[in-house]
Automatic annotation (TrEMBL), chain A:
Domain FAD/NAD(P)-binding residues, every copy: 5-308
SUPFAM superfamilies xref list: FAD/NAD(P)-binding domain (SSF51905)
Superkingdom classification of source: Bacteria
Descriptive protein name: Sarcosine oxidase subunit alpha
Pfam families, A to Z: Pyr_redox_2
GO molecular function annotation: oxidoreductase activity
InterPro entries according to UniProt: FAD/NAD-bd_sf, FAD/NAD-binding_dom, Metab_Enz_Cyan_OpOx_G3PDH
Keyword line: Oxidoreductase
Entry keyword Membrane: no
Automatic annotation (TrEMBL), chain B:
Organism placement in taxonomy: Bacteria, Bacillati, Bacillota, Clostridia, Peptostreptococcales
Official protein name in the record: BFD-like [2Fe-2S] binding domain-containing protein
Pfam families: SO_alpha_A3
InterPro entries tied to this protein: BFD-like_2Fe2S-bd_dom_sf, Metab_Enz_Cyan_OpOx_G3PDH, SoxA_A3
Keywords: Oxidoreductase
Amino acid sequence: MKQVEILVVGGGPAGLCAAINAAQAGAKVLVLERNEDLGGQLIKQTHMFFGSEKQHASVRGIDIASILFNKIYELGNIEIYKNATVLAIYDDGIVSAEINGRYMKIKPERIIVSTGASEKTLAFPNNDLPGIYGAGAVQTLMNVHGVKPGDNVLMVGAGNIGLIVSYQLMQAGVNVKAILDAAPEIGGYLVHASKVRRMGVPIYTGYTVKEAYGKDYLEKATIVKLNDKWEPIEGTEKDFDVDVLCISVGLSPLGELLWQAGCEMRYVGQLGGFVPVRTENLETTVEGIFVAGDVCGVEEATSAMVEGYLAGLTAADSLGYEIKDFEERKQDYLEQLQSLRSGHVGDKIRAGLDQVTIKSEAAVV
Amino acid sequence: MSDNNIICRCSDLTKEDIRRLIEEGYTTFDEIKRVSRAGMGPCQGRTCMPLILREISIITGKPISEIMPGTYRPPVKAITLGQIAEACTEGGNEHD
């Protein structure tokens, strides 16, 4: 059985930052990444990020990934396995994984779960036709493999992912016919929405997919307006001749390992579904299991990275590593998170976090 | 056409199949899983579970926040007995 000090499950933005901080503090870290590439969603992001300078604002996601990779290779005490899926976290703290096709057991002293989230999908007639993709698949095809997913796209979902992927599709020379969203308002940032609108793409809010049509692959899709009870209004249908339907209707946190480990989970709609109850230090109700990123609440990559840094720091601290300026650094991360979640855009996230964050005793007093 | 409204891709179950089961009284994800195999394929419920919970909520009127997801058991993805056996016989991995 392999012994490690800190096991990081998932090498996306949160996991990489967690590994960096834990290793800098002196801990021996093992990162297990399911895919053949590290970086999670970062490597598909060709757009520049928001946030402040500390969080690499104005740098493209894919370049942020390179910055993180370089830091990791500079640190000697991070071991990384790719094509490595964690299969289970058992009651006794033993973790099992499949690493390059081989089964392995690991005994970590601390675990940081940064597994991210999976895409939600929709039920409508003929939703299994080729040409109907999740937005993640479209980004993988286009931005990782350089494959055009089709010629004419209908984008379902006007959140940030739907808007950004629409823009990326247009940059790749694909025709985006329209964007729709069942919600009465555009969910993503207006700066993204304005950009695609200026390029001539209509955004239909309050609409959903009624049906898809096609023989061997998608040829047409019909959308329909919803009333305030989310029921379709007859006679409001619109048809689009498209060969791609891109579904971007939100993400569900991938908390299955946390459920297995016995962490207390709570349903918080604002955070995407069931998420772990945790302390300010991002430790779950199971001692020694920490969380960071979308698995503990769907936000975006910038806050996932800050959470990763925080969890890496607090997990290393809990192992007894002497960390210079621990309190100052921790406060800095907490303040960065607070600022990323400030304002109107962060209302939902803050309301969600209030339901699952255990306040420290000092804060209560 | 409505027969092709797929909820569970792994076991090829449609919205009508799921609705019928809920109306027959299978109103939790685990019950639906046991009678239909929904959630037992390669996706392990990652795709179908949110859709099934939503259908349960629509039909029973219970808010989605009160409907428990299915039980999560190891392993999260399929692994062959051969792989486990190989790890045991290779040594270094105690048989515990």
